[in-house]
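Exercise 7. Given the encoded structure of a 236-residue chain, write a plausible sequence.
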């Protein structure tokens, strides 16, 4: 799936001269946490989120610095903080460096962007115009919509081959030190692993293969063994 499959298209937006009080009302009325700021052509200029409205002079929550800290902060930053806490329109409080994606951007790429930039939403633009927005909630809805019905039957050989392909793509996998046996749709995991996390990851990888009925984990965690393990002692 990609952005175009899960995005919200009925996006609430404001113009750069929208009053801050109007933005607050919109956030509360629509139950949203941010609004894109767009120009007359629909191009994204910025984003105003709840976080941009936390430091307000009206609430007495503007940043307070001691004279010592203010001296080392610099006048540019101090002036910026003043503008954001006293501004009356969107253009003065909005975040300008907005991370945007296209309708064809994959969900995994969007998740990477959200994680890397520590953001909760990304506007979706096409030919510079805003066409939608993808939030964390959109990703959760996409996850909830995945089918939970029974998987198509697969032979033991097909299951083992599919699991081997999945493990081959994972940097944590130690396939040379593990053995996978599939009987009647039940996957048996054998061998040594370096941690409980690696053992659990093997289980989840096996459970995700279509046709698997059950997973039996017989792996041994090296750090929890009660006997010394020497290099090559478990190679068979």
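Solution.
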């Amino acid at each position: 799936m990609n952005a175009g499959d899960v995005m919200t298209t009925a996006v609430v937006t404001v113009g750069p001269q929208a009053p801050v009080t109007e933005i607050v009302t919109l956030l509360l009325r629509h139950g949203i946490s941010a609004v894109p700021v767009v120009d007359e052509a629909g191009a994204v200029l910025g984003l105003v989120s709840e976080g941009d409205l936390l430091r307000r002079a009206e609430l007495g929550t503007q940043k307070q610095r001691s004279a010592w800290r203010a001296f080392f902060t610099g006048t540019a930053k101090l002036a910026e903080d003043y503008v954001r806490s006293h501004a009356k329109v969107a253009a003065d409080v909005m975040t300008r460096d907005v991370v945007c994606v296209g309708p064809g951007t994959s969900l995994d790429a969007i998740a990477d962007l959200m994680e890397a930039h520590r953001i909760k939403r990304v506007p979706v633009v096409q030919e510079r115009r805003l066409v939608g927005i993808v939030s964390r909630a959109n990703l959760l809805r996409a996850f909830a919509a995945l089918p939970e019905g029974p998987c198509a039957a697969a032979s033991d050989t097909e299951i083992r081959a599919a699991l081997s392909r999945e493990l081959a793509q994972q940097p944590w996998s130690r396939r040379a030190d593990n053995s996978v046996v599939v009987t009647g749709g039940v996957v048996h995991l054998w061998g040594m692993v370096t941690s409980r996390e690696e053992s659990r990851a093997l289980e989840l990888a096996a459970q995700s293969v279509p046709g698997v009925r059950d997973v039996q984990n017989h792996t041994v965690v090296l750090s929890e063994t009660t006997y010394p393990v020497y290099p090559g002692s478990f190679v068979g």
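Remark. The domain at 156-224 is CATH 3.30.1340.30 (Histidine-containing Protein; Chain: A;). Students should compare their own answers with the one above.
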